[in-house]
Specification:
mainly alpha; three-stranded antiparallel sheet
């Protein structure tokens, strides 16, 4: 497909381009309209923008699967903050002997499993809330100014239909 050489929409944000592209795609000759209006770079930007708005649940599932394989209870060994061990006292990571002084990297590593679990839960909750918000934007009629709400989270109405 041959696209425009120069932009019809100079200075437009990726969100603005995505809104226009989805509008044009809704017509029976949508591909031709997009080719006439957009440069190849703008189409790439639109596709990247829309893809970034889709939660990567597969990657999060993989992270959670790896996390389940980690033994519970990581901690810094008492008297040696440089030794990270599991609940049974088996070394998980050895950062060198640090004596009794604090070792921030050791503290970070000791909390990785619990922190990752918390982050995954928060992300799943946020994705669910975002989907609910997007559903309400998609279903909203004339009761609200949709573009005002869309700009709050960068959502392009109807973009989930392109998955």
């Amino acid at each position: 497909m041959t696209f425009r050489e120069t932009s019809t929409f100079p200075g437009w944000t990726d969100w603005q381009l995505a809104r226009e592209a989805l509008h044009q795609a809704g017509f029976s000759d949508g591909e031709q309209r997009i080719a006439k209006l957009f440069t190849q770079e703008e189409v790439r930007r639109v596709n990247a923008y829309l893809a970034a708005g889709r939660p990567d649940t597969g990657r999060l599932d993989a992270i959670e699967t790896r996390l389940k394989a980690v033994p519970a209870g990581w901690r810094q060994r008492e008297g040696d903050a440089g030794l990270i061990e599991d609940a049974d006292g088996h070394p998980v990571a050895i950062l060198g002997s640090s004596g009794d002084g604090p070792l921030l990297l050791g503290e970070f590593l000791a909390h990785v499993p619990a922190d990752t679990e918390w982050l995954a839960q928060q992300l799943r909750r946020a994705w669910a809330q975002l989907d609910q918000l997007r559903d309400r934007i998609d279903d909203a009629g004339s009761h609200m100014v949709r573009t005002h709400v869309e700009t709050a989270n960068g959502y392009v109405r109807g973009s989930r239909d392109t998955e």
